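User: Run a structure prediction on this.
Assistant: Running it now.
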Amino acid sequence: MQAARHQEDRFTMTDRDVYLKLAAVAEELQALSDSAESLVGEAALRTAAATLAGTAKAIYDHVLGGDSH
């Protein structure tokens, strides 16, 4: 019963919501990379930012942008 109630409390994210959240997190990671202590940390944050930005772009292109591929 509690598991069913927990599912009811969750909200549904639209594709637009997912796009916006991924884009925001990508921007935050990119900004954080400027203050990384080492080149390894900087590279890790920039790689993660680029990956999330690419995923956000794919969502935008295929779902929100109406790309028919």
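Residues 10-64 form one domain.
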